[in-house]
Amino acid sequence: MADLEVLDRERHARLRLGKPTPPAQSFVQIVPDEIAEAAARAPLFFTKDSSTGQFYVGAMFGFKEGENLLQDSMGRVSGFVPLDVIRQGFFISGEHIAIDPADPRFTSGEGEPLFQDDGQPSDRLRQIQYALGRAHRGIEESRRFIAAMMKLRLIEPVDISLRFDDGETVTLLGLYTISLDALQELDDAQALALFRNGDLQMAFAIAQSLRLVPALAEQRNRRLCDLTPA
């Protein structure tokens, strides 16, 4: 665990903030507040935390560890940027915001200040505070949403196996999605309850996002082609 420091406007007055580093991750955890936006950009799946065995929802950015197919050669992320990236280097510690001063995002040279001259948070810090709040609230909302999906037995496993242009076959295990068949079998009262609290929309977004798997695979093939010597 990083050595965190509670953010303090006097202690960290000279600290400046660089841009977050796009995630070198193939799968990034998201919260329900992000599902609608994320589903328009990347396939979404449930998977289980290896340490707790509990489900969480994540956006797939690539098919192999360290692969982010939504990041261009200049390090920019196209489309959806997870809250987990926006708040990079910042954490919630009790009732306070903490930072990891060793994170490469923090500098004492170029970059945006964390605080204004009067000691008030800068606009960028306020944006990060907002992202932290959304992410923190989303943890409990994730638990509630997943519990609702499990209670109605809407979560089902899905195995993905893809063969790429370089001859490699990639098989992804331990992924789950929403069963459209199970959704259709809900009675009217169950469907109405899910609709009214927003769960039905999120469930459909996750299920429909599977259509983006072929597009992500095609993006990988294009990158493989770019890496092939002429």
Shape: globular
Tally of individual helices: 7
Strand order of the largest sheet: 1-7-6
Question: How far apart lie the N and C ends?
Answer: 45 Å
Number of strands: 11
Topology of this structure?
Layout: E1 5-6, E2 16-17, E3 27-30, H1 32-39, E4 44-48, E5 55-60, H2 83-86, E6 90-93, E7 96-99, E8 106-107, E9 112-113, H3 123-151, E10 155-163, E11 169-178, H4 180-184, H5 188-196, H6 199-208, H7 213-227
Antiparallel strand pairs: 1-7, 2-8, 2-9, 3-5, 4-5, 6-7, 10-11
Description:
The chain is α+β, with helices and mostly antiparallel strands and 230 residues long. It is 35% helix and 22% strand. Helix 1 (32-39) runs parallel beside helix 6. It has a three-stranded antiparallel β-sheet with strand order 1-7-6, with helices on one face. It has a three-stranded antiparallel β-sheet with strand order 8-2-9, with no helix packed on it. A three-stranded antiparallel β-sheet has the order 3-5-4, with helices on one face. The chain has one domain (5-227). It starts with a strand and ends with a helix. It is built from seven helices and eleven strands.
